[in-house]
Design brief:
Helices cover 64% and strands 10% of the residues. The protein is built from 19 helices and ten strands. The strands form two sheets. Strands 6-7-8-3-9-10 form a six-stranded mixed β-sheet. α5 runs antiparallel to α10, α6 runs antiparallel to α8 and α14 packs across α16.
Length: 579
């Protein structure tokens, strides 16, 4: 069963999950002895004390009952603490396992689930399983043990009243089975609605500047309300099945009490049963029914958590489609790149290729520009080099070896990418730059920032390199963010560095300064520059012209001006714009 498979993530916290049921045994024993002592107190001790006028024995029995009640409470509190420690430790390890698994996913794997769904699985779904574990370790031993012991004690006390339980128990079990079967699919739907709600919130917060710029707050509010209403409706549909558990249980308990009082009262009048025995018998029956109720609550919790468990297992069972070979290469000799009849499709369908029959060779240390219209697969092309995606057909060589033969960490450590949509993280500027090299010295950081034209504006900030950027780098402009990301990439000192329209937010003068710094500071590094502005690539060693996923030409600026109509048209249109 999937749930028991997940229990392995308890790890070092399993000792708490094992101790909790043992402690609950002590609570059950105390609760089982109390009704018997109560019966003796009512039927024997009190009448004897009343006849003799000595209440010492009554006080002793009362003190014993008080001590047992305190012990029962102590065992219960210890059990609650142990279940909380074990359950929270389990959820911590499970979240870590899911997050670690997600870190191994390729973009294709992440696209399959969506980021919003993965967040829901890491939070809401794990919380559901945590609650189930905490309830299970407390009730899995306590409830059956209490029910068995109470049945034995009640049977020994008066077997003639047991048929009442024989009627009530099957009714309750039937109700539980019906509730489980009806509620589970509704909880599955509810969790999918949670995914949609999280997606709406995530999208809104990421694009909050766009929302405000286009005055679409009302539209986003309505969209959120619709998602929230969907969650509420599906939750209500599931809960209205589950809530029948409580009323059915109460009706059965009250019916049993009425039947016991009727039949037991007749036996007391007939002299075949004493008042204390009937009182204790009712307590044992209540304990039996309470055990069944706890079972029913446990089943309800399982129904609620079952959908979450299934969703968690989907993530843990998902196999990353990009993995290391059995004996991976770890040494990237140089920055040479060869595309050998490469084809790529996001769906894996060879009849629906985004890139088709792409072949070219880049020598180590060359500066290569890539020009192409929107949708020509420029970003897709460079994403294949560090194996963010795998080719559908053909092969790519880096350093003379197929990229699929490398250890992914070793390959990606030698390929730095600076994207148009750059991401910075919470923390100081220095912390963000050290993503490129965690051991980088202050001098190396400053040199990288000077090469990326970032040093001047960083020093103008209060705190300089120690200034906190805030979440996502909200304290810097788009152009400043791009330059910091370029500096971060330079600190990796990679064999290959890829700029995916990475200077689109800086002016042409700054763009030229950055390119000049790259030529002088990184002569042996292969540089690939994707740009919309031809001025950003015209001084490159060679330029690749992409159109509809195919390489239409490759050469220097002068060569392409003579023979590439597409390149010439782009250049002419941009020069007219300058004029």
């Amino acid at each position: 069963m999937q749930f028991f498979r997940l229990l392995k993530y308890a790890g070092k916290y399993k000792k708490y999950l094992i101790l909790c049921p043992l402690v609950m045994i002590g609570e059950v024993i105390m609760e089982m002895l109390l009704p018997t002592i109560t019966a003796s107190l009512i039927d024997k001790v009190i009448p004897e004390s009343a006849a003799s006028g000595n209440i010492t024995k009554v006080l002793l029995y009362g003190g014993l009952m008080l001590l047992m009640s305190v012990l029962s409470m102590g065992f219960g509190m210890a059990g609650s603490r142990l279940s909380a420690l074990g359950g929270m430790g389990y959820s911590r390890n499970l979240r870590e396992a899911i997050f670690t698994r997600v870190q191994r996913f390729s973009f294709k794997n992440i696209d399959k689930f969506s980021t919003a769904s993965l967040i829901t699985r890491l939070t809401t779904d794990v919380n559901q399983t945590q609650n189930l574990v905490m309830m299970l370790v407390r009730m899995a031993v306590r409830s059956p043990l209490m029910m068995v012991m109470a049945l034995i004690m009640a049977f020994r006390m008066n077997a003639s009243l047991m048929p009442i339980l024989a009627v009530a128990a099957p009714i309750l079990l039937t109700a539980i089975i019906i509730i489980m079967s009806k509620a589970f699919p509704r909880f599955q739907i509810m969790m999918k609605k949670y995914d949609a709600l999280n997606a709406s919130v995530q999208e809104n917060l990421i694009a909050i500047r766009v929302v405000k710029a286009f005055v679409r707050a009302t539209h986003e509010k309505e969209k959120f309300e619709a998602s929230a209403d969907d969650v509420t409706a599906t939750q209500r549909a599931a809960e209205k099945i589950v809530i029948w558990n409580g009323p059915i249980m109460q009706i059965l308990m009250n019916s049993c009490i009425i039947a016991l009082l009727w039949l037991g009262g007749g036996q007391i009048i007939g002299g075949t049963m004493q008042l204390g025995a009937l009182s204790s018998f009712i307590q044992y029956v209540m304990q039996i029914l309470m055990s069944l109720m706890m079972f029913s609550f446990l089943f309800v919790s399982f129904v609620m958590a079952r959908a979450s468990i299934s969703r968690i297992c989907e993530v843990l069972d998902e196999e990353p489609d990009i993995v290391n070979p059995e004996k991976p290469e770890t040494d990237v000799k140089d920055g040479s790149i060869t595309f050998d009849h490469v084809g790529f499709s996001y769906s894996g369908d060879k009849n629906n290729l985004v890139l088709s029959d792409v072949s070219f060779t880049i020598r180590s240390g060359e500066t290569i520009g890539i020009i192409g219209g929107t949708g020509s697969a420029k970003t897709t092309l460079v994403s294949l080099i560090p194996r963010l995606y795998d080719v559908t057909c053909g092969k790519i060589l880096v350093g003379g070896k197929d990229v699929r033969s490398y250890d992914m960490h070793a390959l990606r450590n030698q390929v730095a990418m600076v994207l148009q949509k750059n991401v910075l993280f919470s923390g100081s500027i220095k912390d963000n730059l050290r993503w490129g090299d965690e051991n980088a010295t202050d001098e190396e950081i400053t040199a990288a920032c000077k090469a990326s034209a970032a040093d001047d504006f960083v020093r103008s900030f209060p705190g300089g390199y120690d200034m906190d950027l805030g979440q996502g780098g909200v304290n810097v402009s788009g152009g400043q963010k791009q330059r910091l990301c370029i500096a971060r990439a330079l600190l990796k000192k990679p064999r290959i560095i890829i700029f995916d329209d990475a200077t689109s937010a800086v002016d042409t003068a700054t763009d030229a300064r950055i390119r000049e710094a790259l030529r002088s500071h990184m002569p042996e590094t292969t540089k690939i520059i994707i740009a919309q502005r031809i001025t950003s690539v015209m001084d490159a060693d060679r330029i690749i012209v992409l159109n509809d996923g195919q390489v239409t030409d490759m050469g220097t600026h002068d060569e392409l001006m003579q023979r590439s109509e597409i390149y010439r048209e782009v250049y002419t249109s941009q020069q007219k714009g300058v004029a």
